[in-house]
Design brief:
By secondary structure, the chain is an alpha+beta fold. It contains seven helices and 18 strands. The strands form five sheets. It has a six-stranded mixed sheet with strand order 9-18-17-16-12-15. It has a four-stranded antiparallel sheet with strand order 1-8-6-3, with no helix packed on it. A hairpin with a 2-residue loop joins strand 17 and strand 18. It is globular, with a radius of gyration of 25 Å. It starts with 5 loop residues before the first strand and ends in a 5-residue tail after the last helix.
Length: 422
């Protein structure tokens, strides 16, 4: 309709380290009339699948990206005629994929194309019938054994590694001083071996992990925490919270202690700039939660302003929206620190890789009952208490040992005391 304002729909930012995303599924077509905040498209990134709402009401004028397209953040994907309330017949266009097509992510569809697998003939084993990579590979013909490669010529002396690279970029490391002489033996496929190509999400995640390890000199320090006080407090209030629809978990206590410590030690809530450190005012706490496609890390904005109940409620809401694939792009943007945990099948402790561009990350270990020594009435006593190890990984470029240790000690001390306002 002439004279109507046309509004651009662009691929939104889904976190500072994400530079591209894929169009997973369109829920509208050209000519549809939509309302503001109506979900119009699902996009897929390294972190999760996100449903994107319309920013205005109107009529879909154009869809400029196809399902499966991978585009840079900020790319134009659609246009909407704002304010139009009548549907129009869409201009002739290539027929879209059938709406009854099997549920599959762009990476799974790409894998199916590479192996010549018809998705309509594949029974999905994932949630709600979603087709997984394993489903596709089970239908694929066995790959022919790879020929033994000829010996490669001796490489020239490698160049020195770059000092840094843009976040999200793909690069390789070459080390001088003789280290370039090491080479892993070539892989030769044997009968029974299964080759599982990287999904797009796995490729970007791997790239981020390598970038983080090469960029930030990681230091890991570990603290042992007696959770006796936390468990007593939780037992006293968990039934009350449950009546209010709030699940009071140990994670809630750890997150609350963490944001209190972040406010006390601003050098941890920071990021590295070129020759400087940015001390961040906002504390946006990333929390690892389960989603259908694996672990995701949305964040709680202004987490230091929350009470224990507010923290527990926020974590529960993020977890519920993650399970239902209802997290939004804003849930992933702006995190300043992250708390992660191994889940119910945990392990003693582990050092997590820092989520760039943050300066540190805290990883919880499993909770186990252990024999501990406490002082009571001036005498030592042996008791059995729940104990957990927490590990802080920090960027040694801007966080020294004293700051890292003081920060971690403060979290552990808050948890040991177990003195939280309900």
């Amino acid at each position: 309709m002439a004279g109507e304002k046309v509004v651009d729909v662009v691929l939104p930012s889904i976190g500072e380290s994400i530079v591209e995303a894929s169009i997973k599924q369109w829920f509208v077509k050209q000519g549809d009339v939509i309302r503001a905040d109506q979900i119009i498209v699902s996009i897929s990134s390294e972190k999760t699948d996100v449903d994107l709402p319309a920013n205005v009401a109107g009529r879909v004028a154009e869809l400029l990206a196809k399902e499966g397209d991978t585009l840079p953040i900020g790319a134009l994907i659609a246009r909407v005629e704002a304010g139009v309330t009548e549907a129009a017949a869409p201009a002739p266009a290539p027929a879209p994929a059938a709406t009854a097509a099997p549920l599959a992510s762009p990476s799974v569809r790409q894998l199916a194309r590479e192996h010549g697998v018809d998705l309509s003939a594949v029974a999905g084993s994932g949630d709600h019938g979603r087709i997984t990579q394993a489903d596709v590979l089970s239908k694929a013909a066995p790959a022919a054994p790879a020929p033994t490669p000829a010996p490669a010529p001796a490489p020239a002396r490698p160049a020195a590694a770059p000092a840094s690279a843009p976040a999200g970029s793909t690069f390789s490391l070459s080390l001088g001083g003789g280290f370039g002489s090491f080479k892993a033996p070539p892989y030769v496929q044997k009968p029974g071996d299964q080759i599982v190509p990287f999904s797009r999400k796995r490729r970007i995640t791997a790239d981020h992990m390598v970038y983080s390890k090469l960029t930030s000199p990681h230091v890991v320090t570990v603290a042992e925490v007696d959770l006796h006080g936390v468990m007593k407090h939780r037992e006293a209030f968990k039934a009350q919270y449950k009546k209010e629809g709030v699940n009071l978990t140990v994670l809630s206590y750890v997150c609350l202690a963490t944001v209190k410590a972040l406010r006390a030690f601003p050098g941890i809530n920071a990021r590295v700039l070129d020759g400087a450190t940015a001390l961040l005012k906002d504390i946006n706490l990333g929390v690892a939660v389960d989603a259908p496609d694996g672990l995701v890390v949305p964040n709680i904005k202004h987490a230091d302003e929350l009470s224990l109940k507010g923290m527990a409620r926020s974590i529960g809401e993020l977890a519920a929206r993650a399970r239902d694939n209802k997290l939004m792009p804003d849930d992933f943007s702006g995190a300043t620190f992250t708390v992660t945990n191994p889940g119910p099948k945990g392990n003693l402790f582990g050092g997590a890789i820092i989520s760039q561009p943050n300066a540190a990350i805290l990883r919880m270990g499993e909770i186990k009952k252990r024999v501990v020594v406490i002082e009571e009435n001036g005498e030592d006593r042996i008791v059995i208490h729940p104990v957990m190890y927490i590990a802080l990984s920090y960027d040694h470029r801007i966080i020294d040992g004293v700051l890292g240790n003081d920060f971690l000690w403060t979290i552990a001390d808050l948890l040991r005391k177990g003195q939280f306002e309900a």
